[in-house]
UniProtKB/TrEMBL annotation:
UniProt keyword Iron, yes or no: no
One Pfam family this sequence matches: HATPase_c
SMART domains with a match to the protein in the record: HATPase_c, HisKA
Protein name, UniProt field: histidine kinase
Species for this entry: Skermanella stibiiresistens SB22
Coiled-coil ranges per UniProt: none
Stretch forming the signal peptide: none
One annotated GO molecular function: phosphorelay sensor kinase activity
Lineage top rank: taxon: Bacteria
Catalytic activity of the protein: ATP + protein L-histidine = ADP + protein N-phospho-L-histidine
Residue ranges of every copy of the Histidine kinase domain listed in the record: 238-459
PANTHER family: HISTIDINE KINASE 1 (PTHR43711:SF1), TWO-COMPONENT HISTIDINE KINASE (PTHR43711)
Keywords recorded for this protein, A-Z: Kinase, Phosphoprotein, Transferase, Two-component regulatory system
Record EC number: 2.7.13.3
């Protein structure tokens, strides 16, 4: 009985492990709770930091965009070079991205290359000016987390840096490229969220360049329009003078004949005046014909009626037409055509018109006692070459391009000594080009002028042609 009896002091000793186990479990539960709380708090802090960093980057992008727009507004109307504008744009983005190097590139589609037109942070030695990139992406970046592909290798070699970010605008052919020596430069690697900044800078730069190009084109077009208007005004003044002079003669002489001021017909004076009327009428017809011919040629309505033309006959016909004017001015006309010169396949009327215009123009600017010669020969490549050479007053080299412009007169309307509409040489040049040839002028003041018309080898007969133009 005494052996199985329990004592009150024995129970705590038996329950102590259970109590300790319960206490330990309670402590572990509390630790787990606080651990979860700490983890949640850490996650919230991390999210807060990420949100703060994102907000900071967004604010930085907004500031950069604002600076870009302010800079663009300030640079649009500034008389600065494209290089200076490009450098300023690079400085803004370079400062925002905290990069080591930056470049603006322009695509050359014919060579499949990008040429660097602006660069910052390159120093020495200077890297290559061309970047071989046949199929450029619109956006690209490299980081240590991803291996570089072919594009990445090309771009990192272009900057000489391992980490780059690239943006390309296909419409303008302009690209931006930024690079770092290490990702730690920006406390984070380049990423897709940088695209907005880089593409914003690229768009602003492309817009500035486009606007400057358009403004330059408008400026050039305005100058051209003003020059064309000036030429038109001068032409109308010249034309009115050219038409008025023979018309006054025609009207005056016809009134004398009508009123029989020298008695009743026939009178020798009347025959002289009738001849003057005919001559002035022919001059008017020539002026009007030149204007109509030039208008048809410019509009593409004139067609060539081609056949084989004997240049000896064409030259003789031209000299015959101009001989009266040359004789009255005391100018000698000669022909020097190569022996056995083959015929040319051309429009005979237009070839004759070229020669008459060139010889007539030479007569106007050759003083009494001067000499004009028509030459014809073969060129080294088998083509034909027609030349009108005079010993006249000549012209300065800088005036030659103006002499070939339609309606242009080298002298002032009110002081010029020589008549004409200013269409003779431009008309000859256009006719030569319609035959697949060209017209060139060599001249010097006081040393005469040589006008050369070249026709291609295809225009020269092979010797079997039997049809010739007879002037």
């Amino acid at each position: 009985m005494t052996a199985g009896r329990s004592h009150p002091g024995d129970k705590p000793e038996r329950d102590l492990p259970a109590v300790m186990e319960r206490d330990r479990a309670a402590l572990e539960n509390e630790l787990a709770f606080y651990r979860r709380q700490c983890n949640d708090l850490g996650a919230r802090v991390l999210r807060l930091q990420e949100d703060q960093s994102r907000a900071h980057r967004e604010a930085r992008r907004s500031r950069t965009a604002a600076r870009l727009l302010r800079t663009a507004f300030g640079l649009v109307n500034v008389d600065a070079s494209d290089e200076a504008i490009g450098n300023r744009m690079l400085e803004i983005v370079l400062d925002n991205l905290v990069c080591d190097r930056a470049a603006i590139l322009r695509r050359d589609p014919h060579r499949g290359l990008f040429s660097i037109v602006n660069r910052l942070g390159f120093g020495r030695p200077r890297l290559a000016d061309d970047v071989p990139l046949a199929e450029p992406p619109e956006f690209f970046f490299t980081s240590s987390r991803e291996a570089s592909d072919g594009v990445g290798v090309v771009l990192t070699e272009a900057l000489g840096l391992p980490f780059v970010i690239w943006a390309y605008d296909p419409a303008s052919g302009v690209a931006l490229l930024f690079g770092n020596r290490m990702e730690a430069n920006v406390s984070r690697p380049f990423g897709a969220d940088d695209r907005e900044i880089v593409e914003a800078a690229l768009g602003v730069f492309a817009d500035i360049m486009q606007r400057r190009r358009v403004e330059e084109e408008l400026r050039i077009a305005k100058i051209a329009a003003e020059e064309a208007n000036s030429i038109k005004a001068a032409f109308l003044a010249n034309l009115s003078h050219e038409l008025r002079t023979p018309l006054n003669a025609i009207i005056g002489f016809s009134e004398i004949i009508r009123d029989e001021l020298y008695g009743s017909a026939p009178q020798e004076k009347y025959r002289e005046y009738a001849s003057d009327i005919h001559e002035n009428g022919q001059h008017l017809l020539s002026l009007i014909q030149d204007i109509l011919d030039f208008s048809r040629l410019q509009s593409g309505r004139a067609t060539l009626r081609e056949e084989y033309v004997d240049l000896n006959q064409a030259a003789a016909a031209a000299l015959s037409a101009v001989a009266p004017l040359a004789g009255s001015r005391g100018v000698e006309l000669t022909v020097g055509i190569r022996s056995g010169m083959p015929a040319i396949h051309a429009d005979p009327t237009r070839i004759r018109q070229i020669l008459i215009n060139l010889v007539g123009n030479a007569v106007k600017f050759t003083p009494s006692g001067g000499r004009i010669e028509i030459r014809a020969n073969l060129t080294e490549d088998g083509g034909a070459m027609l030349q009108v050479i005079d010993t006249g007053i000549g012209m300065a080299a800088e005036d030659i391009p103006r002499a070939l412009e339609p309606f242009c007169q080298l002298e002032n309307t009110y002081t010029r000594r020589f008549g004409g509409t200013g269409l003779g040489l431009p008309l000859c040049k256009t006719l030569a080009e319609r035959h697949g040839g060209s017209l060139e002028i060599e001249s010097a003041v006081g040393q005469g002028t040589t006008v050369t018309v070249r026709l291609p080898r295809q225009r020269v007969a092979d010797g079997s042609a039997s049809m010739f133009y007879r002037a």
